[in-house]
Amino acid sequence: MKILIWNIMHGGGRRAPKIVERIRNRRPDLIILTEFRGTPPSREIAARIKEMGLSQQLKTTSESHPARNALLLASRWPLKRIHWRRPPEPKERRLLAHVRAPTSITIAAVHVPNRVSGIKYPFLDALCDLTHRWRGGGALLAGDFNTGRIGEDESVKCFNRREDNFMTAMSKAGWADAYRSAHGQKRAYTWRAPGGGGSFRLDHAFINRHAHGRLLGARIDWPPGDPRPPSDHAALWITLKD
To answer: Are 214 and 241 in contact (CB under 8 A)?
Structure first.
């Protein structure tokens, strides 16, 4: 099972054809897109993904505010949305669903707000609550967390102690950082600040104990040599045993 986790930046905009092309070339089985929107470029991306065989789709877009950042979960297998007890807000930034694949898994897709929003830490607390209470079998918590480890996931100082504590709390709760499980302490980044303001690993996938034995690999994928890449974020790929 090849899982793509990707922040497509502002709903894709004029970069939508490049985004579609890159997805088509990589042939994922399951996709989590953050900064997906209810705008025409995002809707076009969803339609093209559907044509690739990922016809099962769940969205968190707002009809009244289509330009808000939201999520798309697309799959080759049936999806069932699950009620999220004590969920983080806003609702556009989280999605919990069961994937009825040959070996099923539950996906918690998220896009954690940034610090300026004033709701970042309550959102992270709600994710900690979910992972500590989880009793639903194999699961993956994935998306853009706007968070990382101090000194490990930043090329310049950015993350604070509270954000670092979230990362360690995931491990203590039995949810392994998939990239670190595959690559140890190797430095890699998923977002580059404009104007040379540093590079950071913001996009993560945490896999729980029930599913960790299925993890085959994780990689961060930047388009090689493209001066105008499809997004300011790299794609994160997770491969699980079927």
So the answer is: yes
What's the CATH number where 190 sits?
3.60.10.10
How far, in Å, CA of 177 to CA of 186, rounded?
Answer: 13
Structure tokens at 154: 């930043």
Number of domains the chain contains? 1
Place of tokens 């900064």: 35
Q: Which two tokens stand for residue 195?
A: 């104007």
Evaluated on CA atoms 146, 83, 57, 62, the torsion sign reads: negative
Cα three-residue angle 74-228-151, rounded to 5 degrees? 75
CB proximity list for 116: less than 8 A, separation 6 or greater: none
pLDDT digits (tens, 9 = 90+) for 5-45: 999 999 999 999 999 999 999 999 999 999 999 999 999 99
Q: For the segment 39-56, what is each residue's pLDDT rounded down to a tens digit?
A: 999 999 999 999 999 999
Contact 204, 236 (CB under 8 A): yes
Cross-strand partners of 57: 74
Range of the domain at 154: 2-240
Q: Which residues contact 120 (CB under 8 A, 6 or more apart)?
A: 112, 113, 114, 146
DSSP 87: -
DSSP labels, 2-52: EEEEEE-STT-GGGHHHHHHHHHHH--SEEEEEEE-SSHHHHHHHHHHHHT
